[in-house]
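To the wet lab folks,

You asked to see what we're planning to order before we commit. Fair enough. Below is the target structure as tokens, and below that is the sequence we designed to fit it. If anything looks off to you, flag it before the synthesis order goes out.
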């Protein structure tokens, strides 16, 4: 379960406050993979960071009764000066998983070669996504937050990512952001629609997709 209590977040741009989330109060049930829909600039990535706790709200709170991953694909939780291997070791200690097992899994899965032992700041966006996805999937979370990451890499890597994500969803929930509606249909059984600072929960994914398309037309 994830619960929002009067959650608000906005940003100051040229001395003008732009709200992204407005007085959000909503409870998300456990055991569902949710598609997070919204137009460009609607605040989807901001909402994921609020849920993960990597971004603080202006008002209100986010509660959860389970463990939540960082927003996979954004890379904001990683130290720029540490190598991929050092970031992996650090997160293994933070989340209490076997360091050697996680290191072996991530190095094999991310498949970024010598870059695994180079500073994170030197990575391309694709390499960052491979590393963050690999580490997150190597740690057992109750809810995974995923931002466009299964679109990264060549066809072989995308297939590998989707297979791993599908396996994790057998025992966990997820909130997934993707511009690929077919991918959302593949992985998700319900949806959230973010529009003008308001978040609406839909038990019917197709109803949410139809509403999303109508708002974009």
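Sequence we intend to order:
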């Amino acid at each position: 379960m994830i619960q929002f209590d009067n959650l608000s977040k906005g940003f100051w741009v040229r001395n003008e406050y732009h709200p992204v989330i407005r007085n959000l109060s909503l409870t998300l049930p456990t055991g569902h993979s949710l598609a997070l829909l919204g137009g460009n600039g609607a605040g989807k990535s901001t909402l994921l960071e609020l849920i993960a706790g990597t971004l603080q709200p202006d008002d209100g709170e986010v509660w959860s009764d389970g463990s939540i991953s960082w927003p996979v694909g954004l890379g904001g939780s990683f130290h720029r000066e540490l190598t991929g291997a050092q970031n992996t070791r650090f997160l293994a200690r933070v989340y209490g998983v076997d360091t050697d097992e996680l290191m072996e899994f991530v190095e094999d899965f991310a498949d970024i070669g010598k870059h695994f032992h180079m500073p994170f700041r030197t990575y391309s966006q694709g390499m960052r996504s491979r590393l963050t996805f690999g580490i997150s999937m190597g740690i057992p979370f109750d809810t995974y937050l995923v931002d466009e990451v299964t679109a990264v890499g060549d066809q072989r890597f995308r297939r590998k990512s989707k297979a791993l994500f599908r396996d994790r969803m057998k025992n966990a929930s997820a909130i997934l952001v993707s511009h690929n509606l077919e991918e959302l249909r593949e992985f998700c059984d319900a949806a959230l629609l973010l529009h003008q600072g308001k978040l609406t929960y839909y038990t019917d994914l197709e109803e949410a997709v139809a509403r999303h398309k109508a708002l974009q037309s």
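Structural context that might help your review: The beta strands are 2-13, 16-28, 33-37, 59-64, 68-72, 143-147, 173-177, 190-195, 198-202. The longest strand covers residues 16-28.

Thanks,
Computational group
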